[in-house]
Design goal:
Elements (H helix, E strand, L loop, with lengths): L14 E13 L6 E14 L2 E6 L2 E2 L8 E2 L5 H20 L27 H4 L4
Antiparallel strand pairs: 1-2, 2-3, 4-5
């Protein structure tokens, strides 16, 4: 994991993959409020034998001065994310053809209420969402 990764800022020989709609659960470290989001973005930078990722965080909407929080993912969603990453590695580095329909949808495993809260999303603040 590398929180300094930036979209479209790649070292020579590296490839990029962005998972845009992962489902995650968050908990505020200050007030312990819990929320779910179906718009968790995960950026992968890949090179031969190596993959780095950055998970974009979200902040609590109830706290005055909230911190950015890391999401938790269900085991099923982690498996789907890794499946998609492997497919992208096979396509980008081994020339295995892939169709967009080959990627598995990362399922919403908890109820998500309301629209995406752009003002508390790290990805939105950085222009990724």
């Amino acid at each position: 994991e590398d929180d300094s990764l930036e979209v479209h800022s790649l070292k020579p020989g590296w490839k990029e993959f962005m998972e845009r709609n992962a489902s995650g659960r968050f908990q505020c470290s200050q007030c312990f409020y819990k929320w779910s989001s179906a718009k968790v973005h995960i950026l992968f930078h890949m090179c031969w034998g190596m993959a780095w990722m950055r998970i974009f965080r979200q902040a609590c909407r109830r706290c005055q001065d909230p911190q950015l929080e890391e999401p938790d993912f269900s085991l099923e969603n982690v498996e789907r994310l890794l499946h998609n990453l492997v497919l992208k590695i096979l396509e980008d580095f081994y020339g295995v053809p892939m169709q967009p329909s080959d990627l598995q949808e990362v399922v919403v495993d908890t109820p998500v209420a309301g629209p995406h809260d752009r003002s508390h999303c790290e990805g939105c603040q950085l222009g990724v969402c």
